[in-house]
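Priority: low. Protein: Tubulin alpha chain. Input follows.
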Amino acid sequence: REVISVHVGQAGVQIGNACWELFCLEHGIQPDGRMPSDKQNQVDDSFSTFFSETGTGRHVPRAIMVDLEPTSELYSLDEIRTGTYKQLFHPEQMVTGKEDAANNYARGHYTIGKEVIDLVLDRIRRLAENCTGLQGFLIFHSFGGGTGSGFTSLLMERLSVDYGKKSKLEFSIYPAPQVSTAVVEPYNSILTTHTTLEHSDCAFMVDNEAIYDICRRNLDVERPSYTNLNRLISQVVSSITASLRFDGALNVDLTEFQTNLVPYPRIHFPLATYAPVISAEKAYHESLSVADITNACFEPANQMVKCDPRHGKYMAVCLLYRGDVVPKDVNASIASIKTKRTIQFVDWCPTGFKVCFYFAIEM
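Result:
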């Protein structure tokens, strides 16, 4: 049940770089794609949903990176081509255009995007042919950039035609209220949201301002760089996809994300919260209980998007626990949250919390 990741535009590619670096660390895969000799005979190959194995024993990500800009002064594909993980990807997995979309949705969707869409779909087709049972696609992009908005919406329209019922999940960088890289971000966001609404099954949104604040407050990083932001986002992506990459009980299928979190097809924007975000120095000196972590997940300060759900009501909640957690503690924390009535559910939805445990220890 394989999953293909598609990284579009500068934001998508840079997050992809951080994610694949983390996936390799979690599965014990070296930067050249090989397994250390002592791990080669292990039984658990659940990560084959995200990696394919070549005849020579190398593990290659089931991913494609697309950026319409041939070379970016802020690096993106160049960073991967020359970085530590340059041997991990096949050169054909990286597609560049002749000129960038210049923060313009129309250029990404209609003019420049049209020139490379067939090539990108061909590369995706090759990845799909290498799968025994393709589940669907994870699409990483920003809503504010020209490529991230325009080209992604074109690509998703075409994927709906070519791959029909296959699930499409998005990890999107949404423009933040105070942090903006281009004055036209609101236009691009509205246009891409309108186009992808019918073609996306579930979209996890992240805004840079929320991530900046978490880095400053929890990790003591005074001036967070994009690398800091992307590494934090990659931890969130890793936790959401852990059940696809490891033996887990719940959400082992992409469609289960929709079942658990999407009440109506068009309302498919779940709010992701991550806890605990804690620096390595502090981690050794602090002990956090399951109740603390669970409560932290309902604090606006730990959300990936700047908004306050305490002014609204919840339609669905899915809690993913990772590590040394026992169901008894989780049930107690959820019971405590329910008794406080701090979380209001809509009256037409049962106040159920879907819970997933993932116990295994990474490499």
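Residues 3-261 form a domain with the Rossmann fold fold (CATH 3.40.50.1440). The two ends are 22 Å apart (CA to CA).
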